[in-house]
């Protein structure tokens, strides 16, 4: 039996689906994060060079990956919103920005605490650190721009343009350690070679990355529901699903 996925491009169809998926992905995120923290803090061996300080990578690396990936997804939804003028695409892009900003902030914060015992400094203006900071500013810029424009449709278009222009920064972050001589070390994980770390460490990074994925999906879907309620307020289909009247009214 075939499924018509295009029907979920409408807020009417997507709203109840988002609620169900958000719940289950939240549970899965909690389970994966719990397992990942146990492996990372208890089971994974101590690094011969960095000691126990390296364990912060189990949060730092997934957060850095997600910060870049979420921005690309946000830019993709923005392109759909511009090209096809679809409401749900703009809502998805809007919902992704705060979580992307959170991941970028976590990546910068954990990177600073990792860098102090490893490199002797919390911060250095090298290419990867600086471009990741720019990524955080891009996220914050999208959020601020939307707040500054009252008309939702105009805000959608303006934020979509900014998101698409800023997408050029993502490959700069990824390839910065190859293009420039930076303090930041190269990637220990490659799609074409064996990981340059113990398999327990590698497995835990994957577990924590899966947890970050599930967390992102859960909170973004929940945020999309809130955006739909805000934008579609007054629509009969929405009021048939939830009671939007102020408490104490009849």
The proportion of residues forming helix, as a percent range, comes to over 70%
Runs in which pLDDT lies below 50 for 5 or more consecutive residues are none
H/E element sequence:
HHHHHHHH
The overall average pLDDT, rounded, is: 85
Per DSSP E runs of 2 or more residues, the count of β-strands stands at 0
Domain count: 1
Short description:
The protein has 250 residues and is mostly helical. The chain has helices at residues 11-43, 57-84, 87-119, 127-148, 152-166, 169-179, 199-231, 236-241.
Characterize the structure shown.
The protein is mostly helical. The chain has one domain (21-43, 53-184, 206-241). 72% of the residues lie in helices and 0% in strands. The protein contains eight helices and no strands. It has helices spanning 11-43, 57-84, 87-119, 127-148, 152-166, 169-179, 199-231, 236-241. The radius of gyration is 20 Å and the shape is globular.
Task: Sum up the structure in keywords.
250 residues, mainly alpha, 72% helix, 0% strand, globular
How do the helices and strands line up, and which of them pair or pack?
Elements: H1 11-43, H2 57-84, H3 87-119, H4 127-148, H5 152-166, H6 169-179, H7 199-231, H8 236-241
